[in-house]
Amino acid sequence: MLSRLSGLTPAIVILSATLALSGCGYNDFQRLDEQTKSAWAEVLNQYQRRADLIPNLVETVKGETSFEQETLTRVIEARSRATAIQVSPETLNDPQAMERFQQAQGQLGGALSRLLAVSENYPNLKANQAFQDLRVQLEGTENRVTVARNRYIDSVQQYNVLARSFPTNLTAMIFSYSPKAGFTVVNEAEISTPPKVDFGGAGQSPGKQ
């Protein structure tokens, strides 16, 4: 009888430990951690899609010889900065890395908004089918970015609530589940709204301030 009980003891210990971990949110941490990584991968995917469209957009706009070069230069430089900064799933709990990434992507979004706004003053561009197709693709990508970013924000919120709530915060401390950095754009309203462009009157030629 004792030998049977001694044989069951390890199994009981393992079962008890499993139930304890489950009750303290261990499995939830695993699920939400994978969920946030998956959501972040989609954010990066959509930002990369946007970056991939920009070279073709720039080449198309270059065909409009009078187009202001400063606007094109800002887009090119902003794209270079944005693609140079990457945040992997392993560094999602680094607020500074996230802030740098957000700022770079925000600057690119702002530069693109200005380019599209300025293009309204060039009839040849407005009539260019390739430009219009790229514009539609960019607008669709921006919508996908918003959806992907919101899904990531929601996933991080669920994860962080679990990491900070009792008793699951004890599990977080034991297994080093630190809160993840959120994704916020301080001037999102400004970035999302194309700037007003004033060329000083209808009689002024396009591309001149």
Description:
- The protein is mainly α.
- It contains eight helices and no strands.
- The protein has helices at 2-23, 26-62, 69-84, 95-119, 123-126, 129-164, 168-174, 188-192.
- The chain is elongated, with a radius of gyration of 25 Å.
- Residues 10-22 and 186-209 have low confidence and may be disordered.
- Termini Cα gap: 95 Å
Tally of extended strands? 0
Tally of contiguous helical segments: 8
The low-confidence runs, each spanning 5 or more residues with pLDDT under 50, are: 10-22, 186-209
> What is the overall silhouette?
elongated
The SSE order reads HHHHHHHH
Structural class: mainly alpha
Task: Provide a short characterization of the protein structure.
This protein is mostly helical. The chain has helices spanning 2-23, 26-62, 69-84, 95-119, 123-126, 129-164, 168-174, 188-192.
Task: Furnish the topology, listing elements before pairings.
Layout: H1 2-23, H2 26-62, H3 69-84, H4 95-119, H5 123-126, H6 129-164, H7 168-174, H8 188-192
Tags for this model:
209 residues; elongated; 8 helices; mainly alpha; disordered C terminus
